[in-house]
Amino acid sequence: MKLWSGRFESDTDALVDALNASITFDKRLYKEDIAGSMAHARMLGDRGIIGKDDADRIIAVLEEIRADIDAGNFEFKLADEDIHMSIEAELTRRIGDAGKRLHTARSRNDQVALDFRLHLKNEIKEMIGMELDLLSVLCDIAEKNTGTILPAYTHLQRAQPTTFAHYMMAYANMLRRDVTRLEDCLARMDESPLGSGALTGTTYPIDRRQVAEALGFARITENSLDGVSDRDYAIELLADLSILMMHLSRLAEEVILWCSWEFKFVELSDAYATGSSIMPQKKNPDIAELVRGKTGRVYGSLMGLLTVMKALPLAYNKDMQEDKEQVFDAVDTVKKVLPVFTAMLATMTVKPENMRRAASEGFINATDCADYLVKKGLPFRDAYTILGKLVRRCMETGRTLETLPLDEYKSFSPLFDDDVYGAVKLETCVELRNVPGGPSSTSVAAQLDSVRAFLRERLK
Fold it and tell me: Which residue, 389, 422, 426, is CA-closest to 408?
């Protein structure tokens, strides 16, 4: 018999039970559900709403149930619908009427809202830890490659010289923002909804702040309707995870390109690559490709929950049961992706010679050559035009700006002199870009110091 069956004369159809039940996926909330129930029972006993002996007995048996579930000695039954009813039904089976008193002054609506927030708070902390591991690896790679020159690209065309360290710090800055987004999300969701009841609170003299404090919340929700119907925190989390996955997907795409024979900038460890069933020469960047592909999965979870919530009136509606699978799947995906992606990068071999060779082609020092003329008094637009003609001449004669004879330089402008070769040297081009945020060794060192300080602050 269902705990809510008093109003009904007949059982629900078996197909309805199968559609209605959420126990198959929300059973993962059992620890949070039991923690919330224990804090609620203790408060009820302290406030004299139920007997102190009953409260103590409820808490003791809830601990036993949690131990049984931890040990795998608990049967979750579809007839119990969800994790809340499952645990309450088992509690009542074990201690009778005392177990029936646990649900005094609360509803499944505020109970599930509490469980979900508690669960996601823990998940966010774990994911932040994983992000910090990845951020640390990016810094390690950058530190080893401050002098590793490669071409930077726009439109996937070689554009200007930079360093691999500069590249890695670009992704490090993205990831740092991802960490702070999750931190902000965690701070906003740090509210206890318990005490909101079904939607309008309760007539019992409960102490919501006692329960919130016991469960580690910073505060309580301020409106009972909002307390049970709010899923902003879940949507915000999915949005944050979508942005994180977008960043990982961008870096994954870089790795996929860099691993190709056309680039050969990096090589993945055998432990983080796969082969072909028919082509023995292949070493495929499947891990990076899977990260790129799973990004769409997380996006789908975000759009799914936004669509579920888009037209729901206050307060709770059964549609909101669809929140958990979307969030659980996205969180599981991110938690699966981050450690393997981090290990893939940590074990990746960088190929500085190939990067330097690519940087020497494509005239990526043309802007620096134009700047050379500007520093000698020529307007930039005139210098730009001259360099365009110089590049065309180099292409026609099979030369580069480093190998073009000085007399040919002078045929385009008398301002060119022997010092032009120092100006167009790739190392010079990089080191002269010494502005904050630039690729020079000094600039990258400052970026590394900033991110390392960010890491220390969170790892202390």
Answer: 389
Domain 5-104, CATH among 1.10.565.10, 2.30.30.30, 3.40.50.720, 1.10.275.10: 1.10.275.10
Please give the biggest Cα pair distance in the chain: 101
Give the residue among 54, 107, 67, 68 at the shortest CA–CA distance from 84: 107
Fold of 362-459: Ribonucleotide Reductase Protein R1; domain 1 (1.10.40)
- 103 classed as catalytic: no
User: Of the candidates 455, 401, 450, which has an alpha carbon nearest to the alpha carbon of residue 169?
Assistant: 450
Q: State which residues of the chain have pLDDT below 50.
A: 4
155 included as an active-site residue: yes
Q: Which pLDDT score, from 0 to 100, does residue 79 have?
A: 87
Point out the catalytic residue in the list 276, 301, 360, 441: 276
CB under 8 Å to 432, separation ≥6 — which residues? 368, 440
Q: What is the DSSP letter of 274?
A: B
Q: CATH topology for 109-146+159-357?
A: Fumarase C; Chain A, domain 2 (1.20.200)
Q: pLDDT (tens digit, 9 = 90+) per residue, 157-211?
A: 999 999 999 999 999 999 999 999 999 999 999 999 999 999 999 999 999 999 9
- If one counts every other C-beta atom within 10 angstroms of the C-beta of residue 314, the result is 12
| Residue indicated by tokens 């290990």 | 343
pTM assigned to the model: 0.93
Tell me which of 155, 249, 360, 450 is the catalytic residue: 155
pLDDT at position 460: 83
CB atoms within 10 A of CB 181: 17
Confidence at residue 5, expressed as pLDDT on a 0 to 100 scale:
60
Q: CA–CA separation, 421 vs 429, rounded Å?
A: 11
